[in-house]
Amino acid sequence: MKLNVGVVGAGALGTAISQQIAKNVVELTLLLRDEGLCDDINSKHFNTQYYPNTKLNNNIKATVDINDLSDCDIVFLAIPSSAFREFLKELKKIAKEDVIIVTTAKGIEYPSLKTMGNIIDEYFDEDYVALSGPNFASEIMQNLPTITNISSRNSENSKKVKAVLDTPQFKVKIIDDINGIELCGVLKNINAIANGICEGMNINENARFAILTKGFKDTLEIINAVGGSSESVHEYCGFGDLILTSTSTESRNHTLGILYGQRLIIDEQASGIVFEGKNSIRAVKDICRNNDVESNVVNFVYDVIIERKTPITAFNKLWSELK
User: Fold this and answer.
1) Pairing, β 60-63 against β 51-55
2) What span, in angstroms and rounded, lies between the C-alpha atoms of 191 and 259?
3) Among the options 23, 106, 114, 188, which is catalytic?
4) Residue 114 among the catalytic residues
5) pTM over the 0.85 mark
6) For the chain, give me the number of helices (H) and strands (E)?
7) I want to staple 189 with a disulfide (CB 3.0 to 4.6 A). Which of 46, 237, 277, 302 is the partner?
8) Could you state, in chain order, the average pLDDT of each consecutive group of 10 residues for the chain (323 residues)?
9) Contact 150, 160 (CB under 8 A)
10) In degrees to the nearest 10, what's the CA dihedral of 36, 144, 186, 219?
């Protein structure tokens, strides 16, 4: 394929997506910050920090110079939501005017309550593409059967992104709901934390899955309230991702919930681990308030993570409110 494609971020997901895209393009540009890792990728074709045992495709060219993205037709952003705004400011200076920006981040800026797509819109245009689904980077990297959703206000942009991503093992389904796909990606993290808290407390499985069911219903109500489609909540980016991240031991937000349920707190700055759900809980609480939505599950997570209420106190309140 003749499209020039760049990926920003050589973490687990950025590297895995690059490996898939590289099957469909002549050359892929992978932007990262670590010069040593950049040299490893270009000389040895291994991401020694994340996938030391998996050889990268030879047409992945790593760089630490943002100017190498200046000719890209599509740029995938596989960076934490907290880094979005500052990076977009720099990318705007050098990118093509009609570049297609693809966001893979699942977060909301606080206190602006803007999705990552809203921030892209500030610097580029509203025709960005959002990618979200029940995807673990490790499975994508292993070329295991995986499916995801993408959405954009511009159907041609969706088709171009699908063309560079789609492989026999990595399937991409286009949906028409940019608001829903982005918010589904945020809400599933909060549900994952909620389920993890219950697991950390050793709550019985009937109660845990009752709360997961309530979380799914709350997600439907929130998505509808912000102008999204309930159909998206039944898609891979909705139900699929919610179940995956709420139950899998590989889910960081599920793990975060378990630790809080056990009354253990992680120092994220010291550990270098980013939990998008924790960063989003204040924003989602405000979104619910602004749209007159009362979500018992959002309140539960907010009480434990932000208000630092004991898990058992917050759970008893949640359970008393279930019908």
Assistant:
1) unpaired
2) 15
3) 188
4) no
5) yes
6) 15, 10
7) 277
8) 92 97 97 97 97 97 98 97 95 97 93 95 96 96 97 98 97 97 95 96 97 98 96 98 95 91 73 61 95 97 94 98 91
9) no
10) -170
